[in-house]
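Why should sequence recovery work at all? Because a backbone constrains its sequence more than one might expect. Tight turns favour small or flexible residues, buried strands favour hydrophobic ones, and helices have their own preferences. The token representation captures these environments compactly. In the example below, the structure is given first.
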């Protein structure tokens, strides 16, 4: 069932951009450049709001207000609040593809790097995955979260497990990584939120060896001694 925030309110006036003839330089018309810039700004603001407040808590008017435009533009450019959320979260799917594209044996360490990377700027908001966690009360988004975690990350880790109970061990390892992410970005604990990759890596190696098994040195799993 759609909420009032999912559909364009009828009383909002449609913002009309002024058409401008394309300059002779061959660059896109000014109104097109303005549209693209506004659309990008709305996506950036949406990532901040969804990351902080989740899908249900985020308000289309608040997102538009941050950009300085009428809320009707959100519906004009994206169609609905849900479509805006999906597009704002697409960055996470792209990052997942990049993480999975590397050498399989280094996947656990790449996931740790993704979690422990430098704090995102305040203007960018939390990682899109955190926005999905905060929005898990929505059935559709919960399904998307399940698919991403189970069909993407856990499936990749399961292929690395040596020995019995591969499914359980892969999910335990995933739960550990997910817990690190939540404590750092949602709970924002004093110690773990400030921990660096070199500080966490030795303990990570022990957990990875216990749950996933696998031969080779820690340097092999990390892709080299300097990582």
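From this structural description, the recovered sequence reads:
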């Amino acid at each position: 069932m759609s909420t009032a925030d999912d559909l364009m309110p009828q009383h909002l006036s449609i913002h009309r951009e002024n058409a401008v003839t394309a300059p002779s330089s061959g660059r896109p018309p000014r109104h097109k450049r303005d549209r693209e810039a506004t659309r990008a700004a709305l996506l950036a603001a949406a990532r901040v709001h969804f990351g902080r407040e989740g899908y249900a808590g985020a308000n289309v008017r608040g997102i538009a207000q941050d950009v300085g435009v009428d809320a009707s533009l959100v519906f004009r450019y994206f169609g609905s609040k849900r479509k805006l959320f999906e597009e704002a979260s697409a960055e996470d799917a792209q990052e997942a593809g990049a993480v999975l594209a590397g050498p399989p044996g280094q996947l656990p360490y790449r996931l740790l790097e993704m979690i422990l990377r430098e704090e995102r700027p305040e203007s960018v908001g939390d990682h899109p995955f955190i926005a999905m966690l905060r929005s898990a009360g929505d059935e559709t988004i919960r399904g998307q979260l399940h698919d991403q975690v189970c069909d993407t990350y856990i499936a990749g880790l399961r292929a690395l497990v040596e020995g019995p109970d591969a499914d359980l061990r892969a999910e335990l390892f995933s739960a550990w990584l997910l817990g690190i992410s939540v404590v750092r970005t949602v709970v924002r604990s004093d110690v773990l939120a400030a921990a660096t990759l070199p500080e966490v890596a030795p303990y990570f190696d022990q957990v990875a060896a216990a749950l996933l098994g696998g031969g080779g040195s820690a340097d092999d799993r990390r892709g080299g001694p300097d990582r």
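A few observations help interpret the result. The chain has eleven helices and no strands.
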